[in-house]
Amino acid sequence: MRSKAFIAKGLGAAVLVAVLASSASAATINIDTSWANRTGILGQTGGFVEITSGATLTATARVDHDGGIGDAGRVILNGGNFTSTVDYKLPDNNTGNPAFMGIYDGTFTANKFESFGLARDATIEIGANGIFAVESQYSAVTENDGNRYNVGNLILEGSLYASEGLTLDVQDLGGGAVQVTAIPEPATLSLLGLSVLTLFRRRK
Prior knowledge:
By secondary structure, the chain is mainly beta.
């Protein structure tokens, strides 16, 4: 079954790829890295993790992604991949501060993903080259059923959303697995089509 959830943040005249600049205070993952023990994002340098092009971060133990102040409490995929083979908590503790994941370029995969969503200011943004995949407990919902492991609730409430000019594309893989990407909105595609047609006519 394939479904589409149109939960984008505004319209854009073109497809925008949001990429945050690297931060000197961040824990930058630029080589293949493994976390074999329970790890907290706030416990990393600056409380902020960025995974850059070509790098892979693999967590084989639980990850706690709590909210922080400023850049702290953020995980950004800027070309790298992040795989959690067990539980990923967004957030675990209610710090009162935002917890954010930006999947702009790369793939995030979790075996289990628990999130309190907007109730604890936990949000996930997917860019044009980002993939968010969870391997268990997904089901499409029309009302929040309270299951914090069901990505369907995050999509429904808008705590999992696409970058500006894009809309979520949700693929139910069966057995509770789901893959979420971001594609151009129909309005954006129309604008791009008009731009290409105008350019073609000018060149004739």
